[in-house]
Amino acid sequence: MMRFDEGIVSLKQMRVFARHGVLPQEQATGGEYVVSLFVRVDFSKAMLTDSIDDTVNYARLVQVVKDEMAIPSQLLEHVAGRIAKKVCGNFPNVDELWVEIEKVNPPLRTACRAASVKLHVTNDKT
């Protein structure tokens, strides 16, 4: 007999152009960001039914990320929080999620591939 504990649906390294940053120039010119999203969801029913209604729709998750990344913010922490809130609000079957946002080539006056934030959220569902 097979026992099923959890499943992770992930979207890895989505490349997005956005206008985030504390410096006015960052919001004016924008830059490249890489977003990864991991959601823990019980998809044991989807394994049996083969129905998108019994899991999370990747395309809808991508749209949430695109929508929130399109809103300029000073802090990546703020953007990650908005993405998490929207995912939990739109996908009540999500138990936990991790959002990672990387700002490629941040203006730090040193060689740095990316600056990033990673957020872990548990969906309280209350």
Features:
alpha+beta, four-stranded antiparallel sheet, elongated, 126 residues
Verbal overview:
The protein is an alpha+beta fold and 126 residues long. Helices cover 31% and strands 34% of the residues. It has helices spanning 24-29, 44-49, 58-69, 76-90; strands at residues 7-18, 31-41, 94-104, 114-122. The chain has a 4-stranded antiparallel β-sheet with strand order 1-2-3-4. α3 (58-69) runs antiparallel to α4 (76-90). It is elongated.
Rg over C-alpha atoms, rounded to the nearest angstrom:
16 Å
Main β sheet profile: 4 strands, antiparallel
Envelope shape:
elongated
The order of strands across the largest sheet is 1-2-3-4
Which percent range describes the beta-strand content?
A: 25-35%
Number of strands: 4
- Order of helices and strands, N to C? EHEHHHEE
Structure annotation, total helices? 4
